[in-house]
Amino acid sequence: MFKKALMGAVALTALAVGAAQAEDLKEFRIGILGGENEADRLRNFQCMVDQLPEVLGVEKVSLFPAADYDGVIQGLLGGTLDYAELGASGYAKIYLEDPKAVDPILTTVQTDGSTGYHSVMVARKDSGIATLEDMKGKKLGYADPDSTSGFLIPSVTLPKAINAKVEDFFSETGFGGGHENLVLEVLKGTFDAGTTWASGVGEFSDGYSSGNLHKMVEKGLVDMDDLVELWKSPLIPNGPVVVRTSMDDSMRQAFKAFMMELPKKDPACFSAIQGGDYTGYTEVTPAFYEPIIEARRAKIGS
């Protein structure tokens, strides 16, 4: 057993050294989406900073927390980031601009075995708004223009749910500056309701098993007793783990192996970067995101 483990360790070390030498990459750059307190985002990804240098054979791992989704998107398009975890719409934006910029390699698996999540619309419970119909003539907040659950999916699926155009049904729409801030703005009364993301698995009182609401509950930023759910979208494909397409294959494989092993090897790190409970990762290709790519294409053309 010891001999097998030692041989495995030697093989991984050789792979890491070979990966770094093949590309002469001294720094591995991680993009982190906006929408959550920056200190929290940096803390959640610190475990990657601690572990990846040895795994990849690089001198350091740097974190780049963007102010919004587009900051990471532009970094990936420009080749200044090596890895990020995106929403499906964010990946679609990159794909439509340059399909060869990044490769989606993995996505998360929910605790119920699904590979999707939901957009949910929430309002203050004491607002008197209890149903989607009650939002007629009210102000709706979206999370971010490049968010799948916070904008794209609501904008293309709500018209069927309300049997009207969004601009005709709601008095006004706006953006909250990311998922966390959007919910806080709903609680402040800036918006009558807002769209954010949640697994849809588990209890609403917990903010579900994962997602923005779950993270906010864990941080003590929201009490779900203060909110009511007005609407839930159809299932949305979980966002991808993407890597720079030009990355050397040996480094890509070392990174992918690290990520696949992370849920069991370091569940605390896995939970921190994902923001909730998942069973692990599964492999994906661009084909998995075709419906979102087409939805984004249609939205751009509308």
Automatic annotation (TrEMBL):
Keywords annotated in UniProt = Signal
One Gene Ontology cellular component term attached to this UniProt record is: ATP-binding cassette (ABC) transporter complex
Organism domain of life:
Bacteria
What the entry lists under SUPFAM superfamilies is as follows: Periplasmic binding protein-like II
User: Could you say which residues form the signal peptide?
Assistant: 1-22
User: Which biological process terms from the Gene Ontology are attached to this UniProt entry?
Assistant: organic phosphonate transport; transmembrane transport
NCBIfam families assigned to the protein according to its UniProt record, in alphabetical order: 3A0109s03R, PhnD
| Family indicated by similarity | Belongs to the phosphate/phosphite/phosphonate binding protein family.
Protein name as catalogued: Phosphonate ABC transporter substrate-binding protein
Q: Which organism is it from?
A: Nitratireductor pacificus pht-3B
